[in-house]
Amino acid sequence: MLRNRRSELLAAFVLILPFVVIYGWMFVYPTIQMVRLSFTDAPLIGEGKYVGFKNYVRMFKDPVFRKAVWNTAYFVALTVVPGTAVALLIALMVSRLKGWLQSVILAAFFLPYILPVTVVYVIWDWMTNVQFGMLQGAIEWVAGRPVNVWRTIPWFMPGVAVITIWWTNGFSILLFLAGLRNIPAELYEAAQLDGATRWQMFTRVTWPLIWPVTVLCLTIQLILQLKIFDQVYLFAVGGRTQATMVLVQYIYEQAFQKNAGGYSATIALALFVIVVTFSVLQFQILRIRGQR
Amino acid sequence: MSETRSTQHRRLDAGGVLLTLLTLIAAAVWFFPVYWAMATSVRYDDQTVKDFALLPQDPTFTNFLFNIQTSRLPYWYLNSTIVAVSVTVIVVFMSACTGYAISQLRFPGRKALWWMILASFMVPISALIVNHFIIIAGVQLLNTHAGIVLPMLIAPVTVIVYKQFFDGLPKEFREAAVMDGATEFQLLFRLFLPMNWGVTTALAIITFIGAWNSFLWPFLAAQDEKMMTVTVGIAAVQDAFGVFYGRLLSGAVLASLPVALAYLLFQRRVTQAITLSAGIKG
Question: Of B28, B215, B248, which is closest to A117 when you measure between CB atoms?
Fold first, then answer.
């Protein structure tokens, strides 16, 4: 028995060893370093000296940081709820279809999700090109003139938001589809016997039963979109980066372009706190719901 | 009575047909940008800005040839393949081992390990990029495959999926095998993993797609053009290509080919992986 116990311990040790080494090295250590760095004036590479809360004071007074927080929040507002609503709508439409038609239509909606971000960028840069873009006709119709979407501040964030919804919605669509499949068909049959209309079926049967999936999609999207960088960075290259700055981009700029490792760690910690706060909130909300 | 019912039926059917039609149109609109990129990629350069026909008049593969012969695309392909395959193999193997240990074995620190995994699940890894850069630069691994791969190995979701999957398997299997004198490694690799390769394939495909597509870290870690991955490289040549949209878009089509194929071949597994990884949140 004692032998057994010892062999179990040994096996566990060997099995978790690679994981523990990598997590220690790539997750625990960098997290501690990030906190430590935020109290120094270190450059990107090399040691700095301890400066207390100087970076934090600077951050709260920094207009670009405020702009980055505002832009990130604006982007989240433009993507999370609208994106989830669009995903639900698409899932409802796709779930009505059957067989191969459903697979083909689902693929059409899902494929953008698996594209690399640069491909998404190249495609949409081409679609919206101010001279030759496919979409300039529509843009001209709305704005009354051709618009260079990525060089026009009021158009920039909404533009990136539309593309992000187009790009990342496949994930939510699949979750909603899975949720819709779990609704027993008998409920609809019963509703139909009672003479319910399509709309009544949706509001009385589908909506209450799909609500947990909706909460899930919203929280996944929220935490994902708070970390936006790639699209904004790519579309803003050569443009006015300060005006379209988001949090991860500011971390990147301070560290890699301004060589301010300490200050960028402070901003990273701010992002860290924001995302963890939302994660914990989500956890609590789901737990409360689970207890009911 | 029968008459009203049949008219009602007909009305419902008409609504159904209309909805299906709307769905088809919406799908076509949604997919159009992807189609348009593919269509542009087979047009001659002087036609990309003139020929707006839905079907390219005179399709050509010169853009693809140009990309393969004169750009660094072949290097980038090789780098992406090495990185994505290494990440996939290591993540899946490591996660299966760790998930098994946490689910089936009792050892000190088990709870702490589980909490760390859950914590890393909530932490935005993009906040750690600066420190990752410092670490990787410190061990002289910038512009190497190992340097690109290392920070991408943080994959709490796969560990959690494995742990929950192993938790759900009946205890009798394990007990019977232990009676027969199987070691823990035999248990994991001969019994627990083979019992459902589906989960492993699903996680592997989704990890591969994620690794192939990742942008921010490879963009920081590989600044030498020869070491870039496809996803990063396409962004790097963007300005050099200028208005040569045919070349640019054929590069984009090539860059997404492996992930598109992975999805089309394993549609059901991709769907399964997404519902599995979301299931842990709910």
Answer: B215
Per-residue pLDDT averaged across B104-124, rounded? 90
Residues of B in contact with A96 (CB under 8 A): 16, 19-20, 23
Can you give the pTM of this predicted structure? 0.92
Over the stretch A242-258, which tens digit does the pLDDT of each residue have? Answer: 899 999 999 999 999 99
The CATH number assigned to the domain holding A233 equals 1.10.3720.10
Residues 5-24 in B contacting A (C-alpha not used; CB under 8 Å): 15-16, 19-20, 22-24
User: Is 90 exceeded by the pLDDT of residue B277?
Assistant: no
Q: Are residues B77 and B18 in the same domain?
A: no
For the cut 70, the answer to whether the pLDDT of residue B237 exceeds it is yes
The number of distinct structural domains making up chain A is 1
Q: Estimate to the nearest angstrom the gap between the alpha carbon of A149 and the chain centroid.
A: 22
Check whether residue B85 and residue B8 sit in a common domain: no
Structural domain including B36 reads 2-41
- CB-based contact A93 B23, cutoff 8 Å: yes
Q: Which residue has the higher pLDDT, B216 or B243?
A: B216
Asked if the model's pLDDT at residue B1 lies above 60, the reply is no
CB contact residues (below 8 A), chain B span 135-194, against chain A: 135, 137, 150-151, 153-154, 159, 183-185, 188
Q: How far apart are the first and last CA of chain B?
A: 47
The reply to whether B1 touches chain A by the CB within 8 Å rule is no
Task: Name the residue among A138, A109, B53 with its Cα closest to residue A149.
Answer: A138
Q: CA B118: distance to chain centroid?
A: 21
Q: Round the average pLDDT of chain A to a whole number and report it.
A: 91
Of the candidates A33, A90, A212, the beta carbon closest to that of B282 is on A212
- Ordered DSSP codes for B85-107: HHHHHHHHHHHHHHHHHHHH---
Residue numbers in A near B270 (CB within 8 A): 114
Q: How many Cβ atoms are within 10 Å of B112's Cβ, its own excluded?
A: 9
Q: Are B49 and A132 in contact (CB under 8 A)?
A: yes
The pLDDT of residue B243:
64
